[in-house]
Prior knowledge:
CATH class: Alpha Beta
Helix content: 25-40%
Shape: globular
Number of domains: 1
Number of helices: 6
Radius of gyration: 16 Å
Largest sheet: 7 strands, mixed
CATH superfamily: Spore Coat Polysaccharide Biosynthesis Protein SpsA, Chain A
CATH topology: Spore Coat Polysaccharide Biosynthesis Protein SpsA, Chain A
Number of strands: 9
Order of helices and strands: EEEHEHEHEHEEHHE
Structural class: alpha/beta
Strand order of the largest sheet: 5-4-1-6-8-7-9
Amino acid sequence: MLGIVLCGGKSTRMGSDKGLLQLKAQTWAKTAAAKFEVVQLPVRISVNTRQQPAYARLFEPGILITDDSHLPVKGPLLGLLSAHLRYPDHDLFVLACDMPLIDPSLLKELYQAFDPQKADAFIFTNSGAPEPLCSIYTAPALGRILNKAQKNELPKFSLKYVLEQLNTSAIPIREDQKSCFRNFNIYTELNNL
């Protein structure tokens, strides 16, 4: 299994690359990568082609996975399937860089619940809705989604839609954990950090 930090968004509403924002003197991308230490996973950073030069200055060679422009999908699914193409035999534990408040203990809880014999994906749910950007996807399930994408059989590219196509195992989050799953999209939201 690999930890995949998804940084490849356009950050249009934020106005600057969210993965490069600072939290306690460390970029959000590095903050997210460090959270995987609790489960001792090797980490890769998913970026788009425009971001690649900036991230290459922050991370060692081989750590970055640049979106595959040949894939007929968009959004976080593009980062996820690009990582799957690079590491087709690995299950992928994804975490979005714009969830800087996620507690590492939650990653550990999800990792301990992982059993590829029981489900295709392991997720948290927030009031019944899936949290697809802090989830584990098995390699066989990603292979099936990739196959559908390549055949233009995915009418939607949202990860929530992808999860509807998979057998999932869910852990409901408690009320006191909901703030951990908050993602930040505009500068005014950063006042709470």
